[in-house]
Design brief:
The chain is of the alpha+beta class. It has helices at about 55-60, 205-210, 245-250, 290-295, 330-340, 370-375, 415-425, 430-440, and strands at about 5-10, 10-15, 20-25, 30-35, 40-45, 50, 85, 85-90, 90-95, 95-100, 115-120, 120, 125, 125-130, 165, 180-185, 190-200, 215-225, 260-270, 280, 295-300, 310-320, 325, 345, 345-350, 360, 365, 395-400, 410. It has eight helices and 29 strands.
C-alpha cells in the first residue's frame, strides 16, 4: 500500500547544476530539495508513483494555476493528476517528493515521529497510489468479473500476493536468510489452479420450499484469474477481451497436480496492435545515452512479436482440501515448470546473508543487514532486459526463500520509474494491471 514516510535528513549535498537546489538521499533515493532544508530536519517523503489529495495540494499551493496574465501563481503538480514521479532535474535524478511537516498543520494531527507512515490524518486523505483514469475511447467491458453467486467459484484459489518495496523493508532481513534475486517483469498478473471448483447447488425439498439456493457442490477443476478477479469467461476485461490470457491458462490444464496453483506474469502483446503495457516516449526522459541505447520508443515486448504473449512463472503453491497452503521453494517451482515445459522468471543470483558487520565503503557508517541485500540487488536491477534485449528492465524481486510464507520485495531502477511515470501521464495507454485495479474498485 502506498504511503508517505516521516524521515530524518541525514544525507545532503549540493546540486551539481543548480545553485538553488540540494540533493537529499532518502531510502537510497536522491530527491531535489531547496536550500532551506538542513541536516537533521524531519520531513515527509512521498515516493514515486503516488497521488497527493486535492485537499493537501490546495493547502500547500502545489497545484498549477494561472493568473489573468497567464502566469503560473501556484505549484508544479497537474491539478487533475497530482502525481509524484521520478524526473531528471537539470541533470540530477530526483525520485519522489520531500515536504515539511508544517505542510500537515491544517489537518490537526497527533505528533508524528520518524518512521511513521501516513495515508490519512484525522479523517483527511493525504496520499494514495496513483492509478490513472484513462481517457481512452476503447472498449471497457466489465464482463471479466465472475457472475454473482452465493457460493464462491473456488474458495481455495489464492490471490496474488502484494510485493512491497525493498527500500522500505530493509529491517526484515536477518543473517542466515537464504536470498534469491530474480528479474521483475513488466506485464500483467495471472494465476491458474487445479482446485475444488463450484459445479452446482444441490437443493433438498426444504431448500425448494424455503427458496434457498441449497448446498454448493465442488469438484476438482481448473480455475484462472487476474490479480484479484476470477475469470468466468475470457470475453470481458479492460480491452474488451481477455483472449490473450486464455492460451496461458489452457497451457496448464492437464499438467498441474491436485491442489497446485501457479502464479505468472504475462508479457508481450494483447493483439497485433496493442502491447500489454503502455508504450513509452524515450525522448521525454531527456537523457541522450538512454535515447541512443533504446531508441525513440519503449515497448515492453520481452522478445514477443506483435500479437504474441508469453507467460513466466514466479511462484507455485500446493493447497489441500482443508485450505492448508505449502509454498514451493523456487528450486522446486523451477523443477515443476521444467516438467510442464513452462517458462520461469530469470534468476540472477542466490546467496545466504553472512553474519558480519556491514559498513558503507565510503563513509564507514554502520549499516543494517538489509543494506547488504540492497547493494547486491542493485548489481542486477538496472540495464537492458535480458530476454528481448530491446528495452530497459523494470528491476528485480528479492525473495527470502526460507520463510514459510511467500516473502518477496521489489526494487525498481530509476530510469524505469521515470518512464513509468511518463507512460501513466499518457492516460490513453494505462497498463492492464492498473486498469484492472480501477475496475475492481467500481
Amino acid at each position: 500500500m502506498y504511503c508517505g514516510y516521516i524521515v530524518k535528513i541525514d544525507k545532503l549535498r549540493k546540486h551539481t547544476n543548480a545553485d538553488r537546489l540540494q540533493i537529499a538521499t532518502v531510502f537510497g533515493n536522491d530527491v531535489s530539495v531547496g536550500l532551506d532544508v538542513k541536516l537533521g530536519d524531519i520531513l515527509i517523503y512521498f515516493p514515486t508513483d503516488g497521488q497527493l489529495s486535492t485537499e493537501y495540494c490546495e493547502y500547500n499551493n502545489l497545484l498549477r494555476k494561472r493568473d489573468a496574465n497567464g502566469d503560473n501563481i501556484g505549484g508544479y503538480l497537474d491539478p487533475s493528476k497530482r502525481n509524484v514521479k521520478a524526473i531528471k532535474l537539470r541533470g540530477e535524478k530526483s525520485d519522489g517528493l520531500l515536504m515539511p511537516l508544517s505542510s500537515l498543520d491544517y489537518f490537526e494531527h497527533d505528533e508524528l515521529n520518524v518512521g511513521d507512515k501516513i495515508t490519512v490524518l484525522n479523517g483527511h486523505e493525504i496520499c494514495t497510489k496513483y492509478i490513472p483514469r484513462t481517457n481512452s475511447s476503447g472498449p471497457r467491458n466489465l464482463g471479466n468479473k465472475t457472475r454473482k453467486r452465493k457460493a464462491p467459484i473456488s474458495p481455495l484459489f489464492i490471490e496474488h500476493a502484494d510485493t512491497e518495496q525493498l527500500a522500505y523493508n530493509l529491517n526484515v532481513f536477518k543473517p542466515g536468510d537464504e536470498i534469491e534475486i530474480t528479474l521483475k517483469m513488466h506485464g500483467t498478473s495471472q494465476r491458474t489452479g487445479y482446485l475444488p471448483v463450484f459445479k452446482k447447488f444441490k437443493r433438498s425439498l426444504l431448500d425448494i420450499i424455503l427458496r434457498r439456493p441449497g448446498k454448493p457442490i465442488y469438484d476438482w477443476g481448473y480455475v484462472t484469474g487476474t490479480r484479484r478477479v476470477v475469470l468466468d469467461t475470457y470475453d470481458g476485461g479492460y480491452y474488451g477481451g481477455n483472449q490473450f490470457r486464455e492460451q496461458h491458462a489452457k497451457f496448464f490444464e492437464g499438467k498441474l497436480l491436485k491442489g497446485e496453483e501457479v502464479f505468472y506474469e504475462v508479457v508481450g502483446y494483447i493483439d497485433e496492435n496493442n502491447p500489454i503495457m503502455g508504450k513509452g516516449n524515450n525522448k521525454k526522459i531527456n537523457d541522450k545515452d538512454f535515447l541512443k541505447k533504446y531508441g525513440d520508443t519503449t515497448v515492453f515486448s520481452y522478445g514477443c512479436n506483435p500479437g504474441e504473449s508469453k507467460a513466466y512463472v514466479y511462484r507455485m503453491t500446493m493447497t489441500n482440501e482443508d485450505g492448508d497452503i505449502v509454498e514451493y521453494t523456487p528450486d522446486f517451482m523451477r523443477y515443476r515448470c521444467e516438467q510442464m515445459g513452462a517458462n520461469t522468471v530469470p534468476m540472477f543470483t542466490k546467496f545466504i546473508i553472512p553474519d558480519i558487520d556491514y559498513q558503507d565503503a565510503t563513509t564507514g557508517e554502520q549499516l543494517c543487514v538489509g543494506d547488504y541485500v540492497k547493494d547486491i540487488a542493485e548489481e542486477y536491477y538496472d540495464g537492458t532486459d535480458p530476454i528481448g534485449r530491446t528495452h530497459i528492465r523494470e528491476g528485480v524481486v528479492v525473495r527470502i526463500v526460507n520463510r514459510p510464507k511467500f516473502c518477496a520485495y521489489k526494487h525498481k531502477n530509476f530510469f524505469f520509474k521515470v518512464l513509468e511515470g511518463l507512460i501513466k501521464e499518457d492516460a490513453t495507454a494505462p497498463d492492464v494491471e492498473e486498469a484492472q485495479e480501477v475496475l475492481d474498485e467500481n
